[in-house]
Amino acid sequence: MRYHKAPDETIRRLPKYLRALMVLLERGQKTVSSVALAEFMGGNPARVRKDFSLFGGFGKRGFGYDIETLAGEIRKILRLNVVNKAALVGVGNLGRAILAFPSLKIYGFEIVAAFDNDPRKVGEKAGRIVIEHISQICDLNRRGVRVGIIAVPRHAAQQTANDLLEAGVRGIVKFSQGYITVPKKVKVITIDIAMDFARLPYYMPGNLSRAAPVALAGGL
């Protein structure tokens, strides 16, 4: 079975499995069962086995999974076993935090370029990267960059996506709010911190709002 045919839900879980396996390796553990892995992650053993069965299984009955081997297989499935060069557009507070985020390299990503349209930022160093003007973004294809990271205000997100695609980017991670339109062959992953915060109160016991219902103009 080809990897891209796996359900999106499974692909979303694979990085979580990988992170858990890396923690177990750091603790000196060599093998893990589906039950132990699910318990460690707060998941379901049957789901763990089903997810891995889509790619061949990897485990042995009565033995479990060799953690190092399984982590390597997940890296291959996610194509994290090679360096994925990325370019960041928008070097504000969020952009600088992304540049300083240490775990990207663990998952095979390397930000090699950063762009902004503020002339006051151009030429500055953000970590080890010199910030370039957005007009230089057309050079990405020559640099082997295939991943774009958008951290610009909402109103500039679509144009930024257009510029990245024209420069040869084939995958986008978007931190900007709002929506962008891209060709079907281009994958966009949206990370909206505020939206995740908005889900949290629902799961918090004793947090039911006692505020009076809001009256709608014109009635129902």
Structural commentary:
The protein is an alpha/beta fold and 220 residues long. The protein folds into 2 domains: 3-78, Arc Repressor Mutant, subunit A; 84-193, Rossmann fold (3-Layer(aba) Sandwich). Helices cover 35% and strands 17% of the residues. It is built from 8 helices and 9 strands. The strands form 2 sheets. Strands 5-6-4-3-7-8-9 form a 7-stranded mixed beta sheet. A two-stranded antiparallel ribbon has the order 1-2. α7 links the parallel β7 and β8 (171-174). The longest helix is centred in the first third of the chain and has 19 residues, at 8-26.
Write the layout of secondary structure elements.
Elements: H1 8-26, E1 31-32, H2 34-41, H3 45-53, E2 65-66, H4 67-78, E3 84-89, H5 93-100, E4 109-116, E5 125-126, E6 129-133, H6 140-143, E7 147-150, H7 157-166, E8 171-174, E9 187-190, H8 193-199
Parallel strand pairs: 3-4, 3-7, 4-6, 7-8, 8-9
Antiparallel strand pairs: 1-2, 5-6
Helix pairs in contact: 1-4, 2-3
